[in-house]
Amino acid sequence: MSTTELVRDTPAPPAPAGPDRRNRWYRIRPNLWHLFLIPFCLLWVYPFIWMISAAFKSPSEMLLGGLSLIPDDWTFDNFDRAWTTAKFGDYTINTITFSITVVLLVLLTSATAGYALSRPDLPGKKVIVGILIATMFIPHGYTIIPVFLLINDLGLNNGLLGAALAQAGPVLVVPILLFMGFFAGIPRDLEDAARVDGAGYVRTFLRVMLPLSRPVIGTVTLLNFITAWNSFFIPLVFTLGAPELRTLGVGMFSFFGQEGTDWTGLAAGACISTVPIVIVFLFLQRTFVEGIAGAVKT
Amino acid sequence: MSRTRRTLRWAAAASAVALTATGCNLVGSGEDDSNDDASGENVTITVALVPDPPGASEFYRAQFDQFEEDNPGITVDVIENPTDQQLNAVELMFQQGDPPDVFRAQAEGFDRMYERGWTHSLEEFVTDEFIDRFPEGTMNPATSGLHRDGELYTLPLVTGKWDVRVLIYNEAVLRDNGYDAPPETWSELEEMATTITQNGGGSVFGYAPASNKAAAVEMLAQTAVPYSVVSEGIDFRTGQPATASPGMVEAVELHRRMQANGVMVPGWESWDGSRAFTEFAAGTIAMYPSAPWHVAEIRKLDPEIEMGVAALPVPDDGRGGYTPMKQPFQPIWSMSSETEHPEQAWAVMDFLASEDFHRAYYEEFGTLTAVESAWEDQAAENPDQAAILAVAEEGMRLVPNPKLATPGGAAILQARAQRPELKHTDAAVDAIINNKPFLPIAEALDAQIQTFLDETLTELSGTATIDDITFPSWDPLENYTPEQ
Amino acid sequence: MASLQAPARRPRAAGRPRAARWRRHAWSYAFLVPAALLFCGFSIWPMLASWWYSFFEWDGVGAPTDWIGLDNFRDVLGAGGFWDAFWHSFLFSLAALFIELPLALILAILLNNAWLRGRNVYRLALFLPVVTTTAVVGIVFAILFDPIRGVVNTALTDIGLVDSPINFLGSTTTALPTLIGIDIWKGFGITLIYWLAALQTIPKDIHEAALIDGANPRQSLRFVVLPMLVPLAIVILLLVFQRSLNTFDLVQATTQGGPNYATDVVPTYIYRFAFDPFLQAPRYGFACAAGVVFGVMTLLITLLQAPVLRRQYKAGATT
User: Fold this and answer.
1) Pairing between strand B151-152 and B240-241?
2) How far is CA A42 from the centre of its chain?
3) Who's near A264: CB < 8 A, 6+ residues apart?
4) What is the value of ipTM here, to two decimals?
5) CA dihedral C96, C97, C102, C103 (to 10 degrees)
6) Which of residues 72-91 of A touch B (CB under 8 A)?
7) Is A169 in contact with C137 (Cβ distance < 8 A)?
8) Helices B424-434 and B438-459: crossing angle, nearest 10°?
9) Rounded Cα gap, residues C236 and C267, in angstroms
């Protein structure tokens, strides 16, 4: 297995005491990974850097010029145009509202459902999980029409809540399964201990289990935030009567025309709209990186 | 640990603030507050459009600001939809019971709207002055393309001449290879393209088939066979399937040969619509058949390029057809049948068809608009546009259009449109890329088209016959005038 | 779907221990209600509705009236284009499962090590493609892989690896593998995050305890850490599988299914019939039928794997 080969080269964090030579080797060896990681990551982010550099180029330089990442002529026109064309000023607050609502809806429903389903003895569990997994494979893109009719009948058609519900509904399965898998892995004793202390079901969930699930919360938040942030079709369809409520994902499509695309404007818009996601990532990565290490004492 | 918790708390607090700040947006107001002013003082007209081409968003807003200033009492609300989603979006707005008063539905998109009864007849508003804005004879109810059942239903943005197809060529590259004029026949095209590619050393190529769907096949074939053979696979002179016509087959074979010999620019197989003009502006390709709007895009990318615009080359044994002028205009602007303020909506539409607006649009985007008096003089002085107009004058002919001629014809074409696989396009790309002889493929397609026609005519018996798509007196080399 | 909530309303059984267990389960069912509502409304109902629509010749507007029975299904099953698209989607999945999944696990294990300096930066770097706008990705790779001026071909010919430039996205043989590669690049960060989160659920103490017990790091990983990952690994496997089946944006942005449909996948196939703006007559009913066939087929494929997965899950859970 490739995994095991990799680990052969991976020393444990505290290098075991040994002869000096070996000790030094242990100190150097981890750094060898950088020889691989640095060029690999540079190559990896090249298209992203390219996007940033295109945002500072003129359309003709971007399309006709060479592959240089440094623009010959720095221009800020693209950002100017992006700001007005994609209506960043108007749409940013909407996008934040929409994305946060989606994340909250997903977290609330999937954490509770995942916790409930993590109990192995729950009657009907198999059926429910079976249905969840089965629906994972139904393509969702084209089911927008029935969803639209439903939201319309609920009277939520011209608000971001309707859009958020429509966005959160179909993506629930993944987070539920993640939470379920996570909670199922937590030792029962921990829960029993809480119960002995007199905590009820809800209290155990809120005070003991939920804080432990930070890595999953972080993952679910991050991924759903990104999807919601970039989402296009759903916010478009559910704000038809109230275009002032649209999100950036919709605004970004203003760069696409029947007769060609404003690539540099799009690149500038993409840069602006990526910044919040990167910030969210930096915030959240602590949760799934530091996570619960050491928290679960057995 | 606590740092993480603090992060989460901070995020929660931020969320709470953002949510309360915009809480009212979440549920949405059922009533649009700007729309219920029925007392007559101020009326809001909603216009659903697409912000295309780039910059159109600001352009339309500025134009409507001007309009509002000139027409106190009318406010124009713009709803922009991405180009690809405009039709779906407008359809959903109708289903929601909150349709726009005026909307953009282009070409076949208009028919989708019309067939659903969502368009308002404009006949009651039209004046002689309005008709006179457009070139003489173009507003004939039988052929304009804007009328249905003799009534005006939709307004145009661009002139019918904009449907012309041209050969764009790079004068400098041609000159370097010893050519002082663009090709006039297909074999000249092939020979020149081959030479240029051979001399190009892998960085300059003689020819590109315009897009990943090899749109050039369609454009060139229109010079060889009646247009309906190319677009529908049916010869409208006889009502018979005709994809296997020699001219049509040769158009594909020409491209197949050039592909097999490595003449065409590699990579075209996955080009999107804008790559052709980008590559041309970069100097990679010497010539390609194109829609006329590419010319302006190329100029934008490289104002200095030595670009020529010529008529499409014709088959060696002479011309068999022209770029079709199916109708003088393509539908663009329509009024909702459910509008509560038809008068005011018309005022907006009247503005969208005014000489001022058409001139402004022309000046902003270089598009030749429908009100020709708005740009005629300027275009004559612009070499690129003058060249396009010259080709349009020579390279287009009026053709019979069953959709406008009879309801039966419209029904057959509608049924045909639901079977896009009957068109040569995919089969031709397959033949070119995979080096397959096209004749057997075309014959198989013709057999399918015959089956389709038989089935459709049975299904539509009583409403349509083969006569609805047969025009025995049509000569594809002449302008067609319907017998009235 | 009533089954989701129905048991909660069952009369309580007699006897104190059972009653107590029921009360506990009652809470569990109550916890399921919000998700059930959302899920029924926005997954189950649209799914059932689309099944219903698939029996109609319908363009998506107004009430469907033109019942045509199984004709749409007959058309889908007989359409060569659909099966080609299906095969391509399947290849996307295979690549995701057999290349992306293990690679991401390896990098996650590496980047989970506290001794690796700058791991935050590496993580961010690997994650950046995920947040790069898909449409921009399409044009960037089109330019990078261009046979004439693209940097990849320039590099390959300069090194001497190839004689003539490779038409990466334009040739019917290389377009799909190239696109799959781009898809892996774009989605890698997500899988990496899943693995990192999964690794976090394993208490560090256990790993350390194994080391103290004399196991070397490799043994600890192989016999302690990896088995503990299994339950979440199966979930992640499902997620990656599902995501790869639904690849849409990237294909649409890069090749639109071309050249000559060599990269067409089921979602782009469905989109063409339901929403393509150039379509004069949308065939929404047909698109729904294609969706149903696709869903049922992938479900069957998944079910074939289910016994294996379940055995693994149980083995992992009891370790």
Assistant:
1) unpaired
2) 22
3) A54, A55, A57, A58, A59, A62, A78
4) 0.82
5) -10
6) 81, 84-85
7) no
8) 170
9) 22
Domains defined for chain B, CATH in brackets: 34-162+329-392 (3.40.190.10), 164-322+399-479 (3.40.190.10)
Q: How many angstroms separate the CA atoms of C210 and C223, rounded?
A: 9
Q: Which of A189-198, B142-151, B467-476 has the highest mean pLDDT?
A: B467-476
What local confidence, expressed as pLDDT, does residue B462 receive? Answer: 86
Return d(Cα C198, Cα A220) in angstroms, integer.
12
Three-class SS state of B465: coil
Q: Environment class of residue C52 by beta-carbon count within 10 Å: exposed (0-12), middle (13-18) or buried (19+)? A: middle
CB B264 within 8 A of CB B208: yes
The helix (run of H) or strand (run of E) holding residue B44 is strand B43-49
Phi/psi for B288 (5° steps) reads -165, 150
Domains of chain C in start order, with CATH, are: 78-318 (1.10.3720.10)
pLDDT, tens digit (0-9, with 9 covering 90-100), for C3-50: 333 344 444 444 556 666 666 688 888 889 999 999 888 888 888 888
CB B131 within 8 A of CB B353: no
Distance, CA of A46 to chain centre: 21
* Residue C60 touches partner B, C-beta closer than 8 Å: yes
- Alpha-carbon span C232 to A184, nearest angstrom: 9
Measured between alpha carbons, how far is B155 from B134 in angstroms, rounded to an integer? 11
Point out the residue among A100, A148, A255 whose CB comes nearest to the CB of B19: A100
The C-alpha atoms of residue A81 and residue B54 are separated, in whole angstroms, by 10
Using CA atoms, how far residue C86 sits from B318, B430, C99, in Å, is: 45, 19, 20
Q: Does B37 touch chain A (CB under 8 A)?
A: no
Q: Is B242 exposed, middle or buried (0-12, 13-18, 19+ CB in 10 A)?
A: buried
CB contacts of C120 in chain A (<8 Å) are 285, 289
Nearest in space to B49 (alpha carbons), one of B112, B107, B103, B113: B103
C267: left (phi over 0), alpha (psi -120 to 50) or beta: alpha
Compute the count of residue pairs across chains A and C with CB atoms less than 8 Å apart: 310
3-state secondary structure of B54: coil
Structure tokens at A189: 């004793």
Question: Per-residue pLDDT averaged across C76-90, rounded?
Answer: 91
User: Which residues 182-221 of chain A have a CB within 8 Å of chain C?
Assistant: 182, 184-185, 201-202, 205, 215-216, 218-219
pTM to 2 decimal places: 0.85
Distance CA C28, CA C137 (A): 44
Backbone angles phi, psi at B266, to 5 degrees: -70, 150
Residue B255 neighbours by CB under 8 Å, 6+ apart: B209, B214, B216, B217, B264, B428, B432
Question: pLDDT tens digits, residue range B371-388?
Answer: 999 999 999 999 999 999
Calpha distance A266→A259 (Å, rounded) = 15
